[in-house]
């Protein structure tokens, strides 16, 4: 069979086209996608053509790793069942067209072990599980009572702040854009210049701004840690003497793993992590061209969701 898919033919040139799907094996499942999210980190770089060298990089490609749908076929060895609602963290099922990360399509074939069963009542909010898992991985071993700093109040920063609260810690969030300082829930958001603190034990940057590392090091306590959890298109550098004086540590938080997905799913199911108030824009997939531009250009757009339910 084939699927309707978002294809980035080259930077800033997007189309909706039908692509043949790789046949499913006994350990695979076929999923009819209901919704997919647009990432303002990696997908923005793919869209603009500024993505650094990355495994599987090249055009044309199918983007997306935030998809939710219903299992319509499952192999005999698959651990999911027909009719189950699942989160799909991307797929590679489009033959010669690269799947990077391959989730923006009406139907996907993926190894069933990679699918994450979710509560159908979450609806399109289940698309946020990938970002929640990314935030959870960045959180690391944060201790109750800690007072860390988070840089950036987009969806990833908000999820990280919520997870920090769930861990019994008290985050402060920096945000340069005044329009993004609203929407807090139990934590403080302010401009960097309005924060006098210079003793943060942990600073997690989710801004993707490669130029701000020296400024963050200046706010660290001795022996403090900076966690880089954004996706950076430019090389990162910092002045050595201030970092040396603080004996600073820098940790890069990598891609989420299955255990991170399992952990945040349990937190959501247990009512300890809310996904409310994070999706600001929803459009039918026929409007994908405009949706991508809005997601990347409008600061009021926290998360854009494509609705595939009426896709032909």
From TrEMBL:
Keywords: Oxidoreductase. The keyword Oxidoreductase applies. One of its GO terms (molecular function) is bacteriochlorophyllide-a dehydrogenase activity. Residues 26-119 form the Alcohol dehydrogenase-like N-terminal domain. It comes from the Bacteria. The keyword Mitochondrion does not apply. This is 3-hydroxyethyl bacteriochlorophyllide a dehydrogenase. It comes from Methylobacterium pseudosasicola.
